[in-house]
Amino acid sequence: MSLRSRLSIAVAAGALAVTALATPAVAGDEPDDPRGDWGQNQTQNQTQNQSQGQNQNHNPRLSRGVVTASSLALRSAPNRGGQIIRWADRGEVVSIFCKTNGQNIQGNRQWYLLTDGTWAWGSARYIRTVGPAPRWC
Predict the structure, then answer these.
(1) Which H or E element spans position 20?
(2) Quick one: 78 and 123 in the same domain?
(3) Residues 21-41 pLDDT 10s
(4) Which of 51, 59, 82, 130 sits most deeply, having the most CB atoms within 10 A of its CB?
């Protein structure tokens, strides 16, 4: 098995593991809350978000970005050799789970792991972040 195949499998397995760990947080599930008042907390958070003009569906653990390239290939690995998962168009708003260093793209080594429907990597060179910077993977 080639190194490229092993790397792709490792990245996919890592993304799957991250998905499994992040799923309760993304769903907003808080089973360890001893007060058992998650519904009340959710209502309070939604009210706070609405008063602050925030998107109710946005997970605070995710960052936002806007695609600046006319068409951006989103890949299975943080390099140009990764399989193309899908394409993102200029102006598309994407959710960024985390960032890592990968292949250098026009002087920028950072890549973002995006969570929009599929887990795919996009070069930070072509994604402008909006709001807080993404965390490291």
Answers:
(1) helix 3-27
(2) yes
(3) 443 333 333 333 333 333 333
(4) 82
